[in-house]
Amino acid sequence: MAEVSELVSILELEPIELDMYRGQTPPGAGSRIYGGQVVAQAMAAAYRTIDDGRLCHSMHGYFMRPGDPKTPILFQVERVRDGGSFAVRRVVALQNGKQIFNLAASFQTPEEGFEHQFDMPTAPAPDTLLNEEELRAKAGLDPASRRIWPVEVRPVDPAPQGVAEVREPNDMCWFRARVSVGDDVALNQCALAYASDMTLLDASLRPHAVDWDSGRLQVASLDHALWFHKASDFSQWHLYVQDSPSASGGRGFNRGSIYGPDGALVASATQEALIRFR
Fold it and tell me: What top-level branch of life does the organism fall under (predicted)?
């Protein structure tokens, strides 16, 4: 149950003052905090101020400084507006008195309305694919040489380990929480937000034959946006369909569509990332 306790504990923020919360980073996080963690914790902080059943339908965040995993993060929530159907929150994430991330999120009372969506593309079933740890082992690498995430990822078309080659700027993978985080919609949204930053910038690197292990690659998420269309259970397999329409100026722009196991489009993502090769 280590994976559950890690993912859930990341989202269990400590209240320290009215609309202010403290979040921690689990051990083994490396030299800087993973961006998806800060996104998910900021969403969790905003949710702490929503008490009428409204659900997040969109969030937009900017990363300003790398986070220090050894230092707790303070999340200060501003209650911007509580309207008849929608509520808006702004969250500032702070370390050592400086902003490392800020987020704006909107929440809506659930209602019925028009519905349509793009169909989920055809993809191999997840049980026919290898996860990231198995791919490393197959290549003769130590699976434990990299962090074991609380989210399992199974790439549909993985790049060969240690080989740099030009590929199309699109990608697909299946991903899910390794063990259930429960049936709470808000918690599942936060878990999905955590995972949504894991592979998204890769699409913008695929056309450029980048060697991740060269020591010359500098990457970082600059901003991140999510739209939640439908509730889902993130302990089930979700298909993450990603593409990159453009890269320029040392930045790569990426888009993602996240489908649930029944083919429903449950969320959409966009991100611009720093992609420098020195």
Answer: Bacteria
Contact 203, 254 (CB under 8 A): yes
> 3-class DSSP state for residue 200?
coil
Pair 79, 104: CB distance under 8 Å: no
Q: What are phi and psi of 222, to 5 degrees?
A: -100, -45
- CA-CA distances (angstroms) from residue 242 to 144, 186, 249? 26, 24, 21
Active site residue 99: no
Q: In the annotation, is 106 catalytic?
A: no
Residue 8 amino acid letter: V
Candidates 37, 189, 196, 197; catalytic one: 197
Q: Please say whether the dihedral angle defined by the alpha carbons of residues 159, 164, 165 and 169, taken in this order, is positive or negative.
A: positive
pLDDT digit string (tens) for the chain, length 278 residues: 444 468 899 999 999 999 999 999 998 777 899 999 999 999 999 999 998 899 999 999 999 999 999 999 999 999 999 999 999 999 999 999 999 999 999 999 999 999 999 999 999 999 999 999 999 888 888 776 678 899 999 999 987 776 778 889 999 999 999 989 999 999 999 999 999 999 999 999 999 988 777 778 899 999 999 999 999 999 999 999 999 999 999 999 999 999 999 999 999 999 999 999 88
Would you call 271 a catalytic residue per the annotation?
Answer: yes
Contact indicator for 29, 69 with CB cutoff of 8 Å: yes
* Residue 122 DSSP class: P
Judge if pTM exceeds 0.90: yes
**Nearest to 157, CA basis, from 187, 122, 189:** 122
Q: What angle do CA 30, 160, 238 make, to 5 degrees?
A: 70
Helix (H, G, I), strand (E, B) or coil at 190: helix
